[in-house]
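Exercise 3.2. Students should predict the tertiary structure of the chain below and write it as structure tokens, then compare their answer with the key that follows.

Predict this chain's 3D structure.
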Amino acid sequence: MTQQVYTRARELADVEDGKQAKLLQILCWAALTALSSRLRPEVTAEQYETALVEAASLYALAALWEVDPVNNCQQVRLGDMTLRPDGKGIAAQCLRQQADKLMRPYSVDGFTFQGV
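Answer key:
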């Protein structure tokens, strides 16, 4: 699944081959591992693969912007919206918040309303 996260992250951002792409691949693995560890016990990664892949790719891109500020990607396109690094971490924070929203229903630390 790490390859799927990496492929999705590269689709969202203008990341070229080379050192930055290798760093992104590591960050994708780390994001996927971290998010998978937060899944509720009754949830498997395979059950919610699409949400997990999307969320992990957003986390990895946020991390890339923070750890590689000189050579970071120039923008991320999410539908009609384009995010660009602002030097203050606001764009990275936005990516993480979107990832958290995607994973909230499946995570042990998430809160969702349930029907009664």
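Discussion points: The CA atoms of residues 104 and 111 lie 6 Å apart. The helical segments are 2-12, 19-37, 49-67, 90-103.
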